[in-house]
Amino acid sequence: MMNEPPRARPRRRPRLTRRGRLVVLMSTALLAGAAVLVPVLLLGGEPPKVARTALVVPEGRRATQVYAAVDQALGAPPGATQKAAVGARLKLPPAARDNPEGYLFPATYPISSSTTPRSLLSYMVNTANQRFGAERIREGAQRNGVTVYQTVTIASIVQAEAETAADMGKVARVVHNRLAQGMPLQMDSTLNYALNRSTLDTSHQDTKINSPYNTYTRKGLPPTPIGNPGEEAMNAAIAPAHGDWLYFVTVAPGDTRFTNSYEEHQKNVEEFNENRRSSPAPG
Description:
single chain, alpha+beta, three-stranded antiparallel sheet, 9 helices, 7 strands
């Protein structure tokens, strides 16, 4: 845990982050009406019509969410894509240890009758390798003293924590500043990943769970990315904003406060708590 000044009986443990805002969104989009024409060489015949759809993978989705979306898009039994990923021999970096989390690149992927879970996962990973293998990514990682794989992990945290694209650079700076000072990251998004959930509320008990993704009790980065980041989050991870911030919390929509003062952060967290107390219950 972070070495912080003691305080008297808080209503809720001050938390570094905005809390998880992942929303399970798995959708398929129909392209070009119901079909597209595929030109082939035929003598005196019409080109056959092949039904195609597209799978949209939004930024920040976890691998389990992507697997479920692929199952749905291909009409496969639940769990089929996750099983396929185990023996797919995807072209992942050695540090990933055959876990594609972070490398299922967010994009729109075409699907046809010949698409399989393995071929679609391979398409995503190959796209990620192309994007993450760019020279500017390698140089940015080296400049920050981390590997490309660690940069993807940082980007996945940024993707989960930043409320807006404008905040991504600042969130990335907080991560780098804490790593540089040997402070635990204390990110609620990593707890949400460990607990396979998405929530704004993190209890004191949650921060005590025994997991390598518990960045309250373990210093450094989690062992893998916690989702699949997009371009903006990767850009923030390699080129974070300049600042000495160590804390942040979104006190209200569109109002994220960054500071290097623990006392100021406490006030911001209390404002967040007050806003939550005064907000009507959902539904």
